[in-house]
Amino acid sequence: MINAETPLTMLLCINWLKPFLALLFSTLLKQGQNCPTSCLCPDHHTVNCSGQGLTGVPDSIPLDVRRLLLSNNWIPWIPSDFLVLYTDLVYLDLRNNSLSQLEPGTLSTSSRLVFLDLGNNNLTEIPSGTFGESRSLIKLRLGDNPYLTMVSRDVFTGLTSLRELELERNGLTGLDVRVLELLPSLNMVRLEGNPWLCNCHFAKLFVWLTNNQHKLPTGLEGIDCTLPLDGRRVPLSLLSEDSFRPCHRILTLADYLIVIFSGICVSVAAIMASFFLASTVHCFQRLSKISKGDEGEGND
Ligand SMILES: *[C@@H]1O[C@H](CO)[C@@H](O)[C@H](O)[C@H]1NC(C)=O
Ligand SMILES: *[C@@H]1O[C@H](CO)[C@@H](O)[C@H](O)[C@H]1NC(C)=O
Ligand SMILES: *[C@@H]1O[C@H](CO)[C@@H](O)[C@H](O)[C@H]1NC(C)=O
C-alpha cells in the first residue's frame, strides 16, 4: 500500500513544483551566463571585475549593467563604442589601470553616467570632446595621472551637473581658468600636487582660486607653485595678487596692435588737422589781401 502511493505523491509534488524549478534554474543559468568569468555580480545591476589582472575590458558584460567596477587592473584602452553598448551605466570605475589615452567621443554618449573614476592611470591629455555633453555626470576623478599635462580649455563644457572634479597630483603646470569658470554646478575641485608654474598665465587662475577657496578641500594650503625666476616652490597661501603685479606691465600682441593702430590714427588726425589749419590760414591770408585791395580801391 505505502509502496504504491509514495511514488505517486512524489510525482504530483514534482509536477506541482516544475514551473518554480524551471524559473529558478533559468535565473541561475542567466546570471551565470551574464556575469563575466573572473568577475563578481553581487546584484543584478553590478559587475565587479576589480583586481582580476585584466588586460582588457571583459566582453560578456550584461548590457543592462549600471555599476561597472574595473579598478586595479591593467586595462590599456577602452573601445570607442564602449558606452554606446552600456547605455544604462551610471557608475564606471576604471581607477588604477594603464589607460594612456581616451579616443575622442568614447565617453560622450554616456547620458546616464553620474560617477566616473579615471584616476591613477597614465593619461597624458584630456582632449576636447572627450566627455561630450554628459549632463548627468556629478563626480569626475582624474587625479594621479602623473603625465597628464594638457587639459583642453573646453573639455568640460556641457558637464552642467558636475559638482566634484579631481585633478590632483597630475603633471599640470597651468590651467585655463575658463575650464573651471564654465562649470555651473562645481562645488569641489582638487588641484594640489601639480607642478604649477606661477608665471603670468597663472595669474588668472590664482585670482579664481583665491575667490573660490571654499571649493578647495584644503583651501590654498595644499597647493604650491614654482617661481619662474629662481625655481623656488612656494605655497599659494604666501602669494597675493600683488605677486603678479609685474604681469600687468607686460603687453600682449593685442596691446601692441592697439598701440600701433592708435599711433596711426593719431598721425592721420594730426596730418588732417594741419592740412585744415594750413588751408584756413591760407584762406584768411587771401581774404585779408582781397579786403586790403578793396580798401585801397575805396581810398582812390
Ligand atoms: C569588488 O571585488 C573586490 C574583490 O574582488 C572586493 O575587494 C571589493 O570590495 C568589491 N567591491 C564592491 C563595491 O563590491
Ligand atoms: C593598482 O593595481 C595593482 C594591480 O592590481 C595593485 O597591485 C596595486 O596595489 C594597485 N595600486 C593602488 C594604489 O591601488
Ligand atoms: C606611462 O606613460 C609614460 C610616458 O608617456 C611612459 O614612459 C610609461 O612607460 C607609461 N607607463 C605605463 C605603465 O604604461
UniProtKB/TrEMBL annotation:
Gene3D superfamilies: Ribonuclease Inhibitor. It is found in: Cell membrane. This is LRRNT domain-containing protein. One of its GO terms (cellular component) is voltage-gated potassium channel complex. It comes from the Eukaryota. SUPFAM superfamilies: L domain-like. It is a single-pass membrane protein. Pfam families: LRR_1, LRR_8, LRRNT. Keywords: Cell membrane, Disulfide bond, Ion channel, Ion transport, Leucine-rich repeat, Membrane, Repeat, Signal, Transmembrane, Transmembrane helix, Transport. Residues 1-22 form the signal peptide. One of its GO terms (molecular function) is transmembrane transporter binding. SMART domains: LRR_TYP, LRRNT. Its main location: membrane. Residues 34-67 form the LRRNT domain.
